[in-house]
Amino acid sequence: MAKQTTFEVDRSPTIISALVHGGVVNGLDVAWLRREVFADGRVSRQQADELFAVARSRAAKSADWTAFFVEKITDHVLRQSGQAGIVGADEAKWLIERVDEAACREGLAALANILAEAKRAPRWLVAAAQERAGRWSATGPAATSAKTG
Predict the structure, then answer these.
(1) Tens-digit pLDDT profile for the chain (149 aa)?
(2) Please, which residues bridge with residue 61 across strands?
(3) DSSP annotation string for 29-85
(4) 107-124 as b/e: b if 16+ CB within 10 A
């Protein structure tokens, strides 16, 4: 009898991207992502990029999504790099690029949360966050993103 080999395929990018096409991200979607995609607590760079793709989409998103997004991006940047709690130069560059691409409240919230929890971060990242917070006032792009309760 031949030995059968099982290959596990990471389907999380496809699953996360499907949220964009569904047009709505609700609390059930978030619970499912927690249980099925992020059960091990790890957030890869590819998964973090996919989460940002959902954030910048026009899909209606629940408050559960925003909290989940901030948590997972914070986990990716602060807890899964070489030095826990430290935002390195490469991570900072990746983060600010994604926040700028998304131009949404949850991106700015993730950036603020990361800086609040970080033991150390590049000074330029702190200045960049402050500049974006001022620029994305009530009339900025983050204020116009569609959200549902």
Answers:
(1) 555 445 444 555 567 777 777 789 999 999 999 998 999 999 999 999 999 999 999 999 999 999 999 999 999 999 986 788 999 999 999 999 999 999 999 999 999 999 999 999 999 999 999 999 888 764 455 443 433 33
(2) 25, 147
(3) HHHHIIIIISTTS---HHHHHHHHHHHHS--EE-HHHHHHHHHHHHIIIIISSSSTT
(4) bbbbbbbbbeebeebbee
Exposure of 19 by Cβ count < 10 A (0-12 exposed, 13-18 middle, 19+ buried)?
A: buried
How does DSSP classify residue 24?
Answer: E
As a whole number of angstroms, the distance between CA 12 and CA 50 comes to: 9
Question: Is the separation of the CB atoms in 103 and 136 below 8 Å?
Answer: yes
Name residue 106's amino acid.
E
45 residue type, one letter: R
Global confidence as pTM: 0.81
- CA 27 centroid distance within chain: 16
Judge contact between 47 and 22, C-beta under 8 A.
no
